[in-house]
Amino acid sequence: MTAAKTALIVIDVQNDFCPGGALAVAGGDQIVPGINALMDDFGAVILTQDWHPAGHSSFASSHAGADPFSLTDMPYGPQVLWPDHCVQGSAGAAFHADLRLDPADLILRKGYRPAIDSYSAFFENDRKTPTGLHGYLQDRGFNSLVLTGLATDFCVAYSALDAAALGYAVTLRLDLCRAIDMDGSLAAMTAQMTAKGVTLISS
Ligand code: VGL
Ligand code: ZN
Known about the structure:
By secondary structure, this protein is an alpha/beta fold. It is built from four helices and eight strands, in the order βαββββαβαβαβ.
């Protein structure tokens, strides 16, 4: 299924999204061996890293009286408020210890601007500010992507939808992703991805 012109994108396989982490995703660590095994089969491996300054505006703790997992209105639209997670330089922001890093051509950090979150690896949550990943992939001639990582219904899904809108052929390995699944978010994002032509496969 893989080809030299397909890039593997591994989204946010970081300690805070694994069991024991600040925003743990059930089974988040289970996908690491399978992702590692895929890495040698692609024309490029790109890892993303959620990378927030302390006091980031997506943290509930930055909004007086707000509970984690509640919604707020940001200038750019609705935003879920999260527990503090993936603070720059913290152990929680580090990649899972077993994730292979050496095969990565690029490690792309996102979410580093205090006033704006970035779920997608392509655009921040204003849906306008580019991260630079599209330019990188275009420069290297990739038009086909396989996505894996955490969390299926947030950073992986937003990345997949943006990639499809940018014209990439996008395959999502559901078996190598795990979801937060907040208020039906997994079903909602799965339906959106299917509608936009993202290929969802389980092996
Ligand atoms: C993510 C919530 C907040 C993710 C990142 O990687 O899916 N979710 N920050
Ligand atoms: Zn985050």
